[in-house]
Amino acid sequence: MILLEGIAASPGIAIGKSLLKLEKEIEIDKENIENDQVEQEIEKLHNALTESKKQLQELKEETAEKLGEEKAEIFAAHLMILDDPEVIPAFENKIKDNKLNAAAAVKEVIDEFAAMFAAMDDEYLRERGSDIKDVGMRVIKNLLGIEDIADKMDEEVIIIADDLTPSDTAQLDTEKVLAFVTKEGSRTSHSAIMARSLGIPSVVGVGSELIEKAENGMKIIVDGNSGKIYFNPDKSTLDKYEEKLEEYEAEQERLKAFKDKKAETKDGHQVEIVGNMGNLKDVVPILDNGGEGVGLFRSEFLYMDRSELPTEEEQFEVYKEVAEKMGDKPVIIRTLDVGGDKELPYLDFPDEMNPFLGYRAIRVCLERDDIFKPQLRALLRAGSYGNLKIMFPMISSLNELLAAKEKVEEAKAELKEEGLEYNPDIDLGMMIEIPAAVMIADKLAREVDFFSIGTNDLIQYTVAVDRMNEQIAGMHTPYHPAVLRMIQKTIESAHAEDIWVGMCGEAAGEELLLPFLLGAGLDEFSMSAVSILKIKEVLTKWTLSEAEEVSKKVLNLGTVADVKDYLNKIKK
Amino acid sequence: MVKEKKVIITNKTGLHARPAAQFVQKAGKFDSKIEIVFEEKEVNAKSIMGVMSLGVGKGNEITVRADGEDADKAVEELVDFIEVEMAKEDE
Asked: In chain B, what residues touch A77 (CB-CB under 8 Å)?
């Protein structure tokens, strides 16, 4: 048995046979051709181009049907490359002038183009480099008569690859794919995203050992929850995973029933179960898992992996897209939360002794109109396209909240004067993540439309425990009675002023904590997409009055252990 | 017949992505040979790879040059596309 570990990119367990899809299998003969072979190679090239275009046309239509027009656009782009008046002569010239065979000619040209695009500053253009490689490999495979992996799939398989491109995944008979395992990639690479939207397990970024150890037809276990992969597992491991798989499958089947159901308790008390998102692509799993909106859209990704602040227009496009995709479902966008553990290289903040207590989030934004204004303007404008709400992070005083609201008013006035369309009635809310905010929640509640409790930071600040410090990680728990009382006090103060309260930290998706939160009166639960269905199910097992009893009891307990024991005992 | 005209790119994405694809498709409808000149580089305006490889961004000035029977019409319509259609993208 061999155990390898990678990044858990899509949850679930798969047990099956491996099928390798490796680029190294393609070998291109580099020997030069004779003059009298030129014509023949050009003809071969054109046949392969015709065949490739036919395949792309079919893929485009199939993908549009299976996954929607948007996903099919990539193949329209590939077709354009093969129709390009500069590209075809470039292939031909390599054959004529450099006396390369057709496959080697195509390889050289695509490598040159890909290198040119890879060197560009613009992220969009860099991505086009991989399109060119992808389309070039298709032509080469057609030239060399290499069977596509799709033709080898006569039974259910676990795909093992260097990485998977959109072309690869579109061609796979997804009914027969049990899991993806790749050498490269991260949680946001194409294969990871694809696996999540197909609902199959995936482990990515395993490293070169994967390719060295894997062979076709090996028995493999893929654990997409922990990121572990077992080659030729021993009997006890296999038994353990077979049991897990059965349980998992039974649960998934059961949970599907909750996708289109409203989130409500046994006695019909409705709450909102929504998803957290960290980038645009997270919309898909949230909707697929029956999420009723977005409770926390972390806007930071717009500011990362770049060399300058995103413009108002760039932000507007992204917010608008989310608003439109979610339709009338609410989308809460949190304004920029940098500083602390999240640094941006182009904002030159000095090093701090206590970054979590330092210059971060709203404290930065209120001083920097060049950061805050474009974001607020983009949010207000995008607010015309759906049900967007704005949320401020790290509010510790009424003054800060009023100052942030003042900035919103200024932005509105600017937009009005410029004659731009925006939503003047957009809901404003704030995160409750600092104990000071909890203590004055009654005052703050009069100034906003909603609260959202950020448990990760609220725990850190309440218990004085650095959440990045592994040595004291055990102390960072939502079950601390002080944290639970903070939550309860927040909800009570909010409801007294008739505003609603959500929770967007990890704790909102914890099954064990659900009866307490429900009983304390929480109105909205925002979590990772994968937890949504499970929480919807647990909700149906409780009545509101039962949960209220639980909540009262829990608030009387003194230790983390007592709280956990009690919640485990009454768990349904 | 050679005809050319200078135009400034005003939309935010520049001549990339979707605008570039639309521009190339539009250029492809004319019989004339059409080129874009930008910072001493000349590319075939009917080639998506060529046009995108220029890396033309907002605020850059390019020259659209056409040579052929329909050169007048080509330059006029392509410049119009940049000034009107592409600018609409930002609205």
From this structure: 21
Question: Rounded to an integer, what distance in angstroms lies between the CA atom of residue A538 and that of residue A542?
Answer: 7
Any catalytic annotation for residue A190?
A: yes
Predicted structure pTM score:
0.61
Q: Indicate the CATH number for domain A27-144.
A: 1.10.274.10
Task: Check residues A104 and A470 and name the one with the higher pLDDT.
Answer: A104
- Please report the pLDDT score of residue A71 as a whole number: 72
Q: Name the minimum distance, in Å, from the CA of A457 to any CA of chain B.
A: 37
Instruction: Kindly determine whether residue B44 and residue A117, on different chains, have CB atoms separated by under 8 Å.
Output: no
CATH topology of domain B2-88: Histidine-containing Protein; Chain: A; (3.30.1340)
Query: A472-489 in b/e burial notation, b at 16+ Cβ within 10 A?
Result: eeebbbbbbbebbebbbb
Which residue on chain B is closest to A121 by alpha carbon?
B55
Chain-centroid distance of CA B40 in Å reads 15
8 A C-beta contact, residue A432 and residue A451: yes
Please report the sign of the dihedral spanned by the C-alpha atoms of residue A47, residue A111, residue A73, residue A157. Answer: positive
Per CB-CB distance under 8 Å, the chain B contacts of A111 are none
Please state which architecture CATH assigns to domain A2-23+152-254: 3-Layer(bba) Sandwich (3.50)
Nearest chain A Cα distance for residue B35, angstroms: 12
pLDDT one-digit tens code per residue, A59-82: 888 878 877 777 777 788 888 888
3-state SS class at A295: strand
Q: Do A128 and B52 touch (CB under 8 A)?
A: yes
